[in-house]
Write a structure and sequence with these properties.
The complex is a heterodimer of chains A (32) and B (237).
Chain A (H helix, E strand, L loop, with lengths): L2 H23 L7
Chain B lengths: L2 H22 L13 H28 L2 H33 L7 H19 L6 H14 L3 H11 L20 H33 L6 E3 L5 E3 L7
Antiparallel strand pairs in B: 1-2
The chains are: A mainly alpha (32), B mainly alpha (237).
Chain lengths: 32, 237
């Protein structure tokens, strides 16, 4: 894989992590 | 500031940071294009440190005040911190492949970061081990205070032990960091974007946790003067 390929994968994972965190943070919290 | 304001600021800063890191900043003379992973890896690690510092402060706040709002603040910050620690490990592994020739090695920085992740996953889990919600929150607060001891171990691991991981470039002992000015600007833009995104997700999670604590609309409550009152959507905080 080229260096640009590693960079693309790293950025995509970062975007996916934030998207997941933004979605999850707005979810209704359960009782604890 | 509302969570919507945080959202606009954070997404705008993220767009600027991505442009700076991928287009404006030059490729590194030694590592080439792969060095651009620094604009994900380093901000993720610093954001995790800041989130865990927030957990420390909020945990102390909970033990002093015994107010569940402090526990909810700690809990919201810990979740973002755990996600950022995981992103630090994954982006570091991807960066390691073209530069070190391996995604993982038993290096003090890598191992201590993995331990940091486990400590805060434990923080999120330990509250469920309590006898009740209050006891669980107390256990979590103690874990949130003790767990922060891992943060300096991770940060200074590259100075305390001989490691494959490079020593800190910016947050190191040097007063003049050895980094190109455009690269430094791109790194600062990424750090700002990550911090704003973290503030957004933490405030959003805190609001979700507080909604759980608030009475549902239409719930009949007993007022202090013993008259029944109905809680409307507008009264909920």
């Amino acid at each position: 894989m080229t260096d640009a390929g590693y960079v693309a994968i790293g950025y995509l994972i970062a975007i996916a992590t934030w998207a997941l965190l933004i979605w999850w943070s707005g979810r209704r919290a359960g009782q604890s | 500031m509302t969570t919507r304001t945080w959202a606009v600021l954070a997404l705008g800063a993220a767009a600027v940071a991505a442009t700076m890191g991928l287009v404006v900043a030059p490729a590194d003379a030694v590592q080439g294009e792969a060095q651009r992973l620094m604009y994900v890896h380093v901000p993720a690690a610093w954001t995790a440190y800041v989130c865990f510092a927030a957990v420390l402060v909020a945990s102390i706040g909970y033990l002093v005040r015994r107010d569940r709002r402090w526990d909810d603040r700690a809990r919201a910050a810990a979740a973002t911190g755990v996600a950022m620690t995981a992103l630090t490990l994954v982006s570091g592994s991807i960066w390691g492949l073209p530069t070190w020739g391996t995604a993982w090695t038993w290096d003090a920085r890598l191992v201590s970061t993995a331990a940091l992740l486990l400590v805060y996953v434990g923080y999120l889990a330990v509250r469920h081990a309590g006898r009740d919600a209050e006891h669980g929150a107390r256990l979590a607060a103690v874990a949130g205070i003790a767990g922060f001891a891992m943060v300096p171990v991770v940060h200074f691991s590259v100075l305390w032990w001989r490691t494959l991981h490079q020593p800190p470039t910016i947050l190191g002992p040097s007063t003049s960091p050895p980094i190109d000015a455009t690269m430094a600007a791109a790194l600062v833009a990424s750090v700002i974007a990550f911090q704003l995104l973290a503030l957004w997700t933490i405030s959003r999670r805190y609001a979700a946790l507080r909604r759980r604590a608030a009475p549902a609309a239409g719930t009949r409550l007993t007022a202090p003067n013993d008259r029944s009152v109905l809680v409307s959507e507008g009264d909920r905080s």
